[in-house]
From TrEMBL:
SUPFAM superfamilies: ATPase domain of HSP90 chaperone/DNA topoisomerase II/histidine kinase (SSF55874), HAMP domain-like (SSF158472), Homodimeric domain of signal transducing histidine kinase (SSF47384)
Protein name from the UniProt record: Sensor histidine kinase MtrB
Gene that this sequence comes from: mtrB
Molecular functions (GO terms): kinase activity
Membrane topology: Multi-pass membrane protein
Species for this entry: Schaalia naturae
Length: 528
């Protein structure tokens, strides 16, 4: 099945006609053009029919009026020459004249000839009216009044009974007064049928209708077909654009020719190529940057080891120094510590960049890991006057984790929380489900803005670089934590509100290699 047919079928099966029309430009234009053509054809048919009717009708009416006046004058001469003197003779003469008139007018389409007595006719000499009751009913009172009041022929459009559908045929009734011997004036009417003209008009309209049918059928099909093919490059480009958005940077469209569609394709291809080049440039730049960080940190390791050794000697001997030199030794010790930890962070980041970080998983109780991290940072918490509370379940919260990495994650979260706690308590909550274990570190200090939350895991990000820090301060801690948690197939999330506090949640699967399947803890809970 060709592509267009498959699309049509899928569209027809999958959605209501309205959405089908909405989603396909080809269908929409085909439908609108057909609707416009149908309106034009209907108008054209109405105007043609009206014009045809009036010209055919006028032509025929003139012929009928000429014929009728001939019949009236012939009838009048026949009456004038009649020698009838009794009622029966006048009746017979009238019958003959009407019969003759009917015979001669039949050629012009006369259906019937009537002789009607006017209401004011004198009673003494009366003859019977001639003509069927059905035909008499065709002659209206208005026409009769006109005929009686004038001395020439009058006409009126009428419906002549006789056809099968009961509606009657179109026709013309023409009437004039005739003077009968002794009986006085009588109304004479000739009823002509226009059925043959009507048949011709009906046939012309049918032919027109049949002529319009192929237009109504062929137009939408043709327009749809042309547009479908014309819009193929647009569909291709749209498909290529979504492939590009999905990360397939090699995707291109077939853009041949010089028309607007080809220009669209070429423009897309140019855009895709320059995007690909830019991304390649950024990739290269990022690789260079990663290599630079890795090289520099590795290069710094050796001098730092030497500095550390020298500093260790100085540190050991600090008791024998004067106060100023002793203070310098302490400062040196602090900064070398800081230098070492920063270098360790950089080396760790380089390991992740080189994708050489490995998960050294072992079964451990998260409560024990939390306890160890809290103990190790007791001194910092005490210095900053922050109480660290641990809330944990009685049962084991065992999981297969890389203890060194999870310790590092928790240490980072705890140190951050304590440093940003503004002296208020920090609460660490441990929880477990059948499949996962979770630790939440919640502080009630400065909190974080939405913008900070959005970037808090970015490398070298620091919301407030000017803030006095006791440890760390490179802006690498949380980005390493994120990598550490990702290595466990876990989840690390942040919440914060300025002036209210922050909360960080770590969830890792109990079994190494599994994905996180539940949330034993909420990222943040409303507090009373
Ligand atoms: P570092 O602590 O070395 O600056 P991190 O990656 O650990 O780097 O943290 C990045 C930034 O996130 C911090 O500088 C701080 O602005 C913000 N941040 C982290 N934890 C908290 C917290 N508990 N409360 C407020 N801000 C925080």
């Amino acid at each position: 099945m060709p592509g267009w047919a498959r699309r049509l079928r899928a569209a027809a099966a999958g959605s209501a006609p309205a959405s089908w029309v909405r989603r396909s430009l080809s269908v929409r234009i085909a439908v609108s053009m057909t609707a416009a053509a149908a309106v034009i054809l209907v108008l054209f048919a109405a105007v043609t029919s009206a014009q045809l009717r009036s010209s055919v009708f006028e032509n025929r009416r003139d012929i009928i009026l000429d014929d009728a006046s001939l019949r009236f004058s012939t009838a009048q001469s026949a009456f004038d020459q009649s020698t009838a003197s009794t009622t029966d003779q006048v009746q017979e003469a009238a019958r003959e004249v009407i019969e003759t008139a009917r015979g001669s007018a039949a050629g012009a389409g006369a259906e019937s000839v009537l002789l009607i007595r006017p209401p004011d006719s004198p009673d003494e000499f009366r003859i019977n009216e001639i003509g069927s009751a059905a035909m008499r009913a065709v002659v209206t009172d208005d026409l009769r009044e006109d005929v009686r009041s004038g001395d020439h022929a009058y006409w009126q459009s009428v419906r002549v009974p006789g056809d099968t559908d009961g509606e009657g045929e179109p026709g013309i009734a023409v009437g004039m007064m005739v003077s009968l011997p002794r009986a006085g004036d009588y109304e004479m009417y000739i009823v002509y049928s226009l059925q043959s003209e009507q048949t011709v008009i009906d046939m012309v309209m049918r032919v027109l209708g049949l002529g319009a049918l192929p237009i109504i059928i062929a137009l939408p099909t043709g327009v749809f077909w042309v547009l479908y093919h014309l819009l193929r490059p647009v569909r291709q480009t749209a498909r290529a654009a979504s492939e590009l958005a999905d990360g397939d940077l090699d995707t291109r469209v077939d853009a041949q020719g010089d028309d607007e569609m080809a220009q669209l394709g070429q423009a897309f291809n140019n855009m895709a190529s320059s995007l690909q080049n830019k991304i390649a440039e950024y990739d290269e730049l990022s690789r260079l940057q990663q290599r630079f960080v890795s090289d520099v940190s590795h290069e710094l390791r050796t001098p730092l080891t030497t500095i550390r050794m020298a500093e260790d000697v100085i540190w050991e001997d600090r008791g024998s120094f004067g106060p100023a030199t002793k203070r310098s030794a302490e400062l040196l010790h602090e900064q070398v510590d800081r230098f070492e930890s920063m270098l360790a962070d950089l080396l760790e980041i380089s390991r992740y960049d080189a994708q050489s970080a490995l998960l050294d998983a072992e079964s451990a109780d998260l409560r024990a890991v939390v306890g160890k991290v809290v103990d190790a940072n007791d001194e910092l918490a005490a210095t900053l006057g922050v109480e660290v509370r641990v809330e944990e379940p009685d049962q084991r919260c065992a999981a297969e984790v890389d203890v060194r990495r999870i310790e590092r994650v928790l240490r980072n979260l705890l140190v951050n929380a304590v440093e940003h706690a503004d002296g208020l308590p920090v609460v660490i909550t441990v929880a477990a489900s059948d499949t996962d274990v979770a630790v939440r570190v919640r502080d009630h200090g400065v909190g974080m803005s939405e913008q900070t939350i959005a970037h808090v895991f970015d490398r070298f990000f620091r919301a407030d670089p000017a803030r006095t820090r006791t440890t760390g301060g490179t802006g690498l801690g949380l980005s390493i934590a994120r990598e550490d948690v990702a290595l466990h197939h876990g989840v690390l999330e942040a919440w914060g509100e300025l002036g209210v506090g922050s909360s960080f949640l770590v969830v890792v699967p109990r079994a190494a290699g599994d994905e996180v399947a539940s949330r034993p803890l909420a990222l943040w809970e409303e507090e009373a």
